[in-house]
Amino acid sequence: MPSFDITSEVDMVALRNAVEGANRKITGRYDFKGSDARVEQTEKLLTLHGDSDFQLEQMLAILLPEMTAKKIDVRCLKHGDVQKVGGNKVKQELTVRVGIEQEQSKKIVKLIKDSKLKVQASIQGEAVRVSGAKRDLLQDCIALVRKEIADYPLQYGNFRD
Which among 9, 24, 82, 121 is placed 20 to 30 Å from 59, CA to CA? Predict the structure, then answer.
């Protein structure tokens, strides 16, 4: 029976390269001279440190194109609130969403079931497996999910006949 998986993955090596490239650009910019502006990465968390809200916006304007250049979908970032740190420093945390969260998985499965396509969708950990009798039905299902879910980066892989 043909099937495929809907997943949400981020290439962590490319992300690290994008963060390093953004840090190089930040340290080289004239308007960041003498400031403590930087982007730190820990596992699935990016932390932007700056002197003001405006600097954080400028750092995002450097980081996001770097990520796009490395073929990382910027929709995988969940932006946290800007926090005041001692003195006049601020920081913002960006969470990297890897895998499909449970509520998003349920939304995808419900969308597929409500579409009346003759396919079965099941949640398998952080992925959704879709299987059907014909390839064409699976391709219609991919088109449907691509059209309806636009706020979350999804990949369609592991296509089997």
Answer: 9
* Contact criterion met (CB below 8 Å) for 124 and 139: no
Q: What is the CA radius of gyration of the chain?
A: 20
Round to whole Å and give the CA distance between 88 and 41.
22
Give the model's pLDDT for residue 72.
92
Hey, is 12 helix, strand or coil? Answer: helix
Residues 77, 60: contact at Cβ < 8 Å? no
Q: What is the pLDDT of residues 26-38, one digit of tens each?
A: 999 898 888 888 9
CB neighbours of residue 93 within 10 Å: 16
What the block records as the tokens of 140 is: 């219609």
Mean pLDDT, range 118-128, rounded to an integer: 91
Residues paired with 38 in a beta bridge? 49
CB distance 80 to 40 below 8 Å:
no
Give the pLDDT band (50/70/90) at residue 85. confident
